[in-house]
Design brief:
By secondary structure, the chain is mainly alpha-helical. The protein contains 6 helices and 3 strands; from the N terminus they run ααβααββαα. The chain has one domain: Arc Repressor Mutant, subunit A (Orthogonal Bundle), CATH 1.10.10.10. The longest helix is centred in the last third of the chain and has 22 residues. The chain is globular, with a radius of gyration of 18 Å. The relative contact order is 0.11.
Length: about 140
Amino acid sequence: MTKDIPGTSIELVRLLEVFGPLYRRHVGRELPSGSPARLRALAVLAEKGPQTMRDLARAVGATAQNITGLVNALETEGWVARAPVPGDRRKTTVHLTPEAAGRVEADRDEHRRRVAALFESLSEPERSALARSLRVLIGRLEG
């Protein structure tokens, strides 16, 4: 087992834990489609078209339970609709409603603007180093 430099690794984990909710609150504030998770689900549907619940959950990185709650809320609000899968009565697909398509693109543009504004205080080399480091850590966690 390697000896940790006091505080370094633990501080990084703590900073990531603090960053996550702050980031979600910052970029999700006042977007009509809501949270980044909702925006990701809507973006997947906009880019890839209708998805099964399982495929949508996988694309968004959500559990079956979470995606069900998310889709239920989006459906209630008129963002998505469900349709049966021809030939398989057990499955349904989720798709954007016609009214939602334009709203999703506007929200995605606003989300990109907010993310760019958030990271503009970092130089390009700093952003690249952060991205490389996070990819390494994600790779280790994914095994």
